[in-house]
Amino acid sequence: MVGAVRASDRVYDAIREDLLADRLAPGTALSEVELAERLGVSRTPLRAALSKLALEGLIDTSRGRTAVVPDVSATSVSELFELREALEVQAARLSARRGSPAVFTALADELEDAARLLHAGGQDAYYEVVARFDEAIDAAVGNRSLCAALDTARLHLARARRVAADDPERLLQAAVEHAVICRAIAAGDEALAAAATLVHLRASLSTILATLRARADRNGGTA
Question: DSSP state, 23?
Answer without folding.
Answer: -
